[in-house]
Automatic annotation (TrEMBL):
Source species taxonomy: Bacteria, Pseudomonadati, Pseudomonadota, Betaproteobacteria, Nitrosomonadales
Pfam family, one: Trm112p
Similarity field: Belongs to the UPF0434 family.
Native organism: Candidatus Nitrotoga arctica
Name used for this protein in its record: UPF0434 protein NTG6680_0408
Domain of life: Bacteria
Amino acid sequence: MDAKLLEILVCPLCKSPLIYRKTEQELICKADRLAFPIQDDIPVMLADEARKLTPEEIERLR
């Protein structure tokens, strides 16, 4: 994942900054509690493609 791209990407829903989780290949929005997948080094920033974070995952982000 390109570092420059990570600097400018924000959540498409609320415009909050995203957290990059390399091992899971996801971008996390803490505000909306969503995980956007990264496929072939391309972030899929569609709300329909995002998954909801579990309560355990949300707790680990704090």
